[in-house]
Design goal:
Layout lengths: L4 E4 L5 E4 L7 E6 L5 E2 L2 E4 L2 H4 L3 H48 L16
């Protein structure tokens, strides 16, 4: 089921504000005299609906914000990586290599598999 609907109201009817959700509208409609009416909701295919300036603007704003964050944050991330993370990883890696490789002066008994 689609989440996008076209609202069809009779002449002079207006949707009432929702009592449950702030900034939302109810499916109850009233005329100026307070008479209750019900709108019809027609499902709309999003491709049929097309784009709207508000939705297109929101997408553009989100993309621009993401680009700005990348431009502002990227130099700090690179600096932290080069100054802190990479040297630490190199140090730990070299320590692991020393532990896993057998010492040339030892007989190798510690690394040989047990004989059957």
């Amino acid at each position: 089921m689609t989440d996008l609907f076209r609202v069809l109201l009779d002449e002079g009817m207006k949707l009432a504000p929702s009592k449950r959700n702030e900034d939302a509208l109810s499916t109850n409609a009233f005329d100026e005299s307070g008479n209750l009416g019900r709108p019809d909701l027609v499902p709309v295919d999003e491709s049929e609906y097309g784009s709207s300036p508000v939705r297109d603007g929101a997408i553009l704003a989100a993309g621009a914000s993401a680009a700005l964050v990348l431009v502002v944050v990227a130099p700090q991330v690179r600096r932290i990586w080069q100054e802190k993370a990479l040297p630490s990883l190199k140090k730990k890696w070299s320590g692991l290599e020393r532990i896993s490789s057998p010492d040339e002066s030892s007989s190798g008994a510690a690394t040989d598999p047990p004989s059957p």
